[in-house]
């Protein structure tokens, strides 16, 4: 208690110097908190992006060696996915797209993404019907020239008018709008809302080829993804002759996981660099504590001559070092929270706060650094011979 | 058994080297409880070394120092600080108050090392300040006081633990003669009323003359002890025999 008061007194007496001493720790702690918060913000951003794209998707990609003998993979997947795997698979759709200019009367959208979808396309890609109806089996079989448009296209071409039943032109080909999707991605020109979905059976006339090469199988629960991939694999092996074509199965979640893992290891590296800043801060504290010991040699001598035991002197200097670094840590936390919030808002539009674990860890670490780097000066002070110390000026 | 006994004590610096210095060169001295003794010598005579050893600030190179009949040389640093805390109060020429603490906190400081409770520390510090008649300055900082006042505070600090021995190293060296006399009178009073053993280290014959007993140190040896007036003291007999 006494040591605490003395340490606070001595820090208060030399405010400027104490602040400069703490600066290293302040910068270190702030850096750790902000970096970790920004990485978690980035991860949240990436996760949100993948969630918008639709999670738990398995992509089936095909390469045909002999197009004349190509299988109707969509038919196979559709039958298998809605048959044997119906408990786990919630949707199957081709995953094929192109880019076209979309026109309605005098209005136009220059490069809209045209998707060739099945009746389950919206579910596979996380779109929700806003008005009208979705693409139906009937449209696919009859190759109806109908489409469902994303929120950006609807806004750009129709503003407040009702698009249902109107005819729009995709590179000159007329299509009747039968439905619209809710906005799901900020509705900018580069967003996922700049989309038009047409029945995939129209691919031959719009793409010039009937052989689609990419399909999406949407799985209900992430736990089932691996099972579905395994089953699809053995199923497709039996259906596709290896001399005719080959296929690959990709777990869509893996990309998100990989991206998050990458950022996490990145944050370890960044945290390490910030940790070095903390270490340097600690050395700064040691340095200034050594100066303090020299300055207070006489005081130490006086205290020893009137009976202060070694422990007392050691405690005094350790407490002072720990307070310097702990106070630095607290200021660092304040700055870290502030900067995390400001930068998070600016970069990701999220109010980010450093995690409790990191915060508590940073403070403990800075106090430990203070104590560790205070040991040498404290030992030096306590080992002074009272006679020599008293002789000092 | 005397309170303090130095038995053929040597303090040697740079032993065995060309510049060997025998700061104490075989000193034997007994001091009884309740004495008021002055150790007198010029600078370099070894009197400061003697005080450091008597005050448990330093240990002899050879020879024995008994405080209360127990050998000091065998004590560990921890025990030495315990001894200083319990048995010895120091007064220095430079006062040696801690500038960041106020007057009563300075006086109470030795009590913290004896783990006295906070309110009790303050009570005893104020009591000691009252005895040296400076209680009105209890809240002041040392640098706000005159030299004489600071030395009174130092005396209060030395006596508030109730230490039986008061070691004073040139206590009046930085004071004018009138203030110096007051400080000496204060120590005399302590000696008389509380039976405190006072050991006064000085180079000033006039100050030393106010003690009951004077011991003169020269070249690390005791060359005169008024207790032995008229008789050759053992040291001198040795010297004469050479």
UniProtKB/TrEMBL annotation, chain A:
Q: Taking every annotated instance into account, which residue ranges of this chain make up the domain MacB-like periplasmic core?
A: 18-233
Entry keywords, A to Z = Cell membrane, Membrane, Transmembrane, Transmembrane helix
What subcellular locations does the record give?
A: Cell membrane
One GO term of the cellular component aspect? plasma membrane
**What domain of life is recorded for the organism?**
Bacteria
Q: Chief location of this protein?
A: membrane
MF terms from GO for this chain are: transmembrane transporter activity
Checking Pfam families in the record gives: FtsX (PF02687), MacB_PCD (PF12704)
The ABC3 transporter permease C-terminal domain covers: 273-386
**Residue stretches spanning the membrane:** 20-42, 268-293, 313-339, 351-376
Q: What membrane topology does the UniProt entry give?
A: Multi-pass membrane protein
Signal sequence, renumbered to the chain:
none
Family indicated by similarity: Belongs to the ABC-4 integral membrane protein family.
* Name this protein carries in UniProt: ABC transporter permease
UniProtKB/TrEMBL annotation, chain B:
Q: Which Pfam families match?
A: ABC_tran
Question: InterPro entries, from UniProt?
Answer: AAA+_ATPase (IPR003593), ABC_transporter-like_ATP-bd (IPR003439), ABC_transporter-like_CS (IPR017871), ABC_transpr_LolD-like (IPR015854), MacB-like_ATP-bd (IPR017911), P-loop_NTPase (IPR027417)
In this chain the ABC transporter domain maps to: 4-240
| Keyword list, A-Z | ATP-binding, Nucleotide-binding, Transport
Q: Which GO terms describe its cellular component?
A: membrane protein complex; plasma membrane
Reading the lineage from the top rank, the first entry is Bacteria
* Coiled-coil residues: none
Q: Name one GO molecular function term.
A: transmembrane transporter activity
PANTHER family xrefs = ABC TRANSPORTER ABCH.1, IMPORT ATP-BINDING PROTEIN
What is the official name of this protein in its record? ABC transporter ATP-binding protein
């Amino acid at each position: 208690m006494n040591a605490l008061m003395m340490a606070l007194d001595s820090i208060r007496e030399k405010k400027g110097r104490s602040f400069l001493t703490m600066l290293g720790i302040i910068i270190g702690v702030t850096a750790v908190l902000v970096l970790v918060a920004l990485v978690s913000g980035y991860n949240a951003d990436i996760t949100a992006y993948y969630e918008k794209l639709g999670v738990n998707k398995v992509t089936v990609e095909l390469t045909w060696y002999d197009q004349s003998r190509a299988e109707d993979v969509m038919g196979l997947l559709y039958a298998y996915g809605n048959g044997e795997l119906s408990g786990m698979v919630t949707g199957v759709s081709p995953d094929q797209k192109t880019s076209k200019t979309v026109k309605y009367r005098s209005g136009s959208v220059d490069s809209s993404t045209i998707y060739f979808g099945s009746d389950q396309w919206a579910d596979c890609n996380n779109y929700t019907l806003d008005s009208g109806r979705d693409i139906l089996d009937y449209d696919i079989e009859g190759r109806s020239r109908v489409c469902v448009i994303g929120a950006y296209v609807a806004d750009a071409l129709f503003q407040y008018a009702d698009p249902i039943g109107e005819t729009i032109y995709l590179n000159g080909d007329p299509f009747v709008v039968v439905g619209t999707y809710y906005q799901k991605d900020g509705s900018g020109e580069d967003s996922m809302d700049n989309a038009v979905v047409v029945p995939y059976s129209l691919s031959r006339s719009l793409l010039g080829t009937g052989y689609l090469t990419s399909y999406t199988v949407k799985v209900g629960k992430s736990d089932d993804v691996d099972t579905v991939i395994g089953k699809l694999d053995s199923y497709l092996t039996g259906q596709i002759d290896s001399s005719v074509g080959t296929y690959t199965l990709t777990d869509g979640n893996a990309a998100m996981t990989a991206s998050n893992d990458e950022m996490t290891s990145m944050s370890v590296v960044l945290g390490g660099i910030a940790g070095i800043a903390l270490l340097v801060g600690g050395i700064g504290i040691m340095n200034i504590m050594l100066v303090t010991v020299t300055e207070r040699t006489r005081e130490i001598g006086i205290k020893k001559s009137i009976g202060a035991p070694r422990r007392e002197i050691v405690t005094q200097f350790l407490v002072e070092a720990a307070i310097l670094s702990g106070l630095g840590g607290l200021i660092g936390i304040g700055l870290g929270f502030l900067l995390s919030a400001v930068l998070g808002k600016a970069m990701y539009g999220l109010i980010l706060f450093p995690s409790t674990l990191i915060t508590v860890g940073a403070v403990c670490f800075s106090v430990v650094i203070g104590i560790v780097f205070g040991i040498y000066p404290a030992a030096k002070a306590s080992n002074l011979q009272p006679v020599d110390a008293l002789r000092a000026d | 058994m005397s309170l303090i006994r130095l038995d053929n004590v040597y303090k040697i610096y740079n032993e065995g080297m060309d510049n060997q210095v025998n700061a104490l060169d075989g000193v034997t001295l007994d001091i009884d409880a309740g004495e008021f003794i002055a150790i007198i010598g010029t600078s370099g005579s070894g009197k400061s070394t003697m005080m450091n050893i008597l005050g448990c600030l330093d240990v002899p190179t050879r020879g024995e120092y008994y405080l209360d009949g127990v050998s000091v040389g065998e004590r560990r640093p921890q025990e030495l600080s315990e001894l200083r805390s319990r048995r010895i109060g120091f007064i220095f020429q430079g006062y040696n108050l801690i500038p960041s603490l106020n007057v009563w906190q300075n006086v109470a400081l030795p009590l913290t090392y004896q783990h006295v409770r906070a309110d009790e520390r303050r009570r005893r510090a104020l009591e000691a300040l009252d005895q040296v008649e400076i209680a009105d300055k209890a809240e002041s900082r040392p640098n706000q006081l005159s030299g004489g006042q600071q030395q009174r505070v130092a005396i209060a600090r030395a006596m508030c633990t109730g230490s039986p021995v008061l070691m004073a190293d040139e206590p009046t060296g930085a004071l004018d003669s009138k203030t110096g006399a007051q400080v000496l009178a204060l120590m005399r009073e302590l000696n008389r009323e509380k039976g405190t053993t006072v050991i006064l280290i000085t180079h000033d014959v006039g100050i030393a003359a106010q003690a009951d007993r004077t011991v003169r140190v020269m070249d690390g040896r005791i060359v005169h002890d008024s207790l032995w007036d008229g008789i050759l003291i053992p040291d001198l007999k040795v010297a004469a025999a050479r």
